[in-house]
Specification:
Oligomer: single chain
CATH superfamily of the largest domain: ADC-like domains
Number of domains: 2
CATH class of the largest domain: Mainly Beta
Radius of gyration: 22 Å
Strand content: 25-35%
Length: 161
């Protein structure tokens, strides 16, 4: 064994904490250990305490580190204005503000306090949500709570397909 080999240690050895997480890629819900030092992610590994994955990750789950830290990660959004023919790059924060403004405007414009029979419904039928299979139970719970608070009643998930 060389001197260099003797000095080698895993990236996880210098972490100051381990944060539990769930892989975002599919509905299996493989648990992950996220190794963090000084607020930066050092590595992401399978959680050996997980009864689902027992510390194993598929190739996509194993690449989660690059998903959250890679230099190729996109921080802008492509946007095409109504009637436009070209895409323009805008900051993610601006795109999120635009989505929030449109949700608020649509909710305000389509709000119903009562239905045609005079029953109190306090809802909007102008917004619907269809979730995907990559959302875990906690994310679906929070989405349902948010949309219910907004008065959105058409909330569905295709994970069972």
């Amino acid at each position: 064994m060389t001197e260099r080999s003797r000095r080698l240690e895993p990236r996880t050895a210098s972490a100051d904490r381990v944060v539990k997480s769930v892989c975002p890629y599919c509905a299996v819900g493989c648990a992950q250990d996220v190794y963090v030092k000084d607020g930066r992610i050092l590595d992401i590994e399978g959680d050996p305490d997980s009864p689902i994955s027992r510390g194993r990750l598929c190739p996509k789950g194993s690449a989660t580190f690059q998903l959250v830290t890679g230099s190729h990660r996109i921080h802008d959004v492509l946007y095409r204005r109504p009637g436009g023919t070209e895409w323009e790059r805008i900051p993610l924060e601006k795109a999120m503000d635009m989505v929030a403004e449109r949700v608020k405007r649509t909710r305000d414009e389509t709000w119903e306090d009562t239905d045609v029979n005079g029953l109190n419904v306090r809802r909007t039928l102008g917004i619907a949500h269809l979730g995907g299979a990559t959302l875990d139970n906690e994310e679906n719970y929070l989405i349902k709570k948010l949309f219910t608070a907004l008065g959105i009643v058409q909330v569905e998930n295709q994970a069972r397909i």
